[in-house]
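Journal club side-thread
Mid-discussion, someone asked how the predicted structure for our own chain would compare to the paper's figures. Pasting it here so we can look after the session.
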Amino acid sequence: MGWIGFSDQTGGRFALEGLDAPCPAQTAPPGECALMPRGTLMVETRLSSDGRPQTLLAFSRSHPWSGGFSLQALPGGGIVLVETQASDMRHATLPYLADDRTDTLRLTYCWDAPARWGRLSLERPEMDRVHSIALPPPHPMPLADMRTVLTDPRQRKMDPDVIFAALSTRIEPIGPMPGLTAGVPVCTPNGYVPAGRIKRGDLVITDDGQTVPVLQAIERRVPAMGSFRPVRLRAPYFGLRRDIVVAPQQRLVIRGSEVEYLFGSEAVLVPARHLVNGFSALYADSPQIVGYHHLLLPGHEEILAAGTRTESLYIGRMRRNPELLRASVLSEFDRSRLPEHPRPVWPVLKPYEAITLAMNRAA
């Protein structure tokens, strides 16, 4: 089914039929004993700037049996997960280095009680870095508890720095994230084709005019919130022939004399979120769940999307990390047939650098 609930500082929603169901059904609240044997709870948050401990998300109950759940961030550099049912407690700490503290972190708790398996992961949306730990055999999560956590602020704790929390009935992937919505036109030998229609084995034309095969075409559906909130890039800015909608982390390849002057490089990579300024780029209206697509190419070639240069899917040397590969959107694909991508040649601009470039282009 996928995503069934979300919450932020303004409210929440829980829908057993799925948040992206075309015709939402009038379903009754889950019974107290209904369980989620497997699923994913995702929390995106900012960490405290003053080093205080944070209870990111917590809930406790006493009926029909005692239990609870909490996810905390410690000042010393640790994410602590505690989950209890009756007198049985599961506890784990995910450490992270002090220099991993950043504006935004994404925490993903996945569990599969029948398989006696669980995982807690930390990602930095602006970097290609993932930290994960295996967890003690988890309990199934009561659906009524999850509904309360997401929709009833009176019965849960959520730190003010939490951006959103979301719940899925699936084991959601971590790692490389696709960044093009289905309608983004990609240049192929047969003209521009929507990204959502391109399949493995199709050909695309790269920025330097080469024709290369698509090794894999991937898709992921995520809540349209926080670091997943889609960005609309407007034509004719960035060389676009039409407006396109992309994920915030999708990086454009920008060239020009001002790029060489300001950054000493022939080109730079600019995440779409750094370009949001209210006119050439702005956050897009979207359903609660958004689908992103991307193309895996042999050498991480640049592709043409509606006339602008943008990255294809970057996976680095992930094939050398079987554990991360199994947890990613590429888990179903043959590891031996995946490419290895060297680090991008071009520097990735920080937010203030992207602002400087935009100001120079407008001058």
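Post-session note: Residues 351-362 form the longest helix (12 residues).
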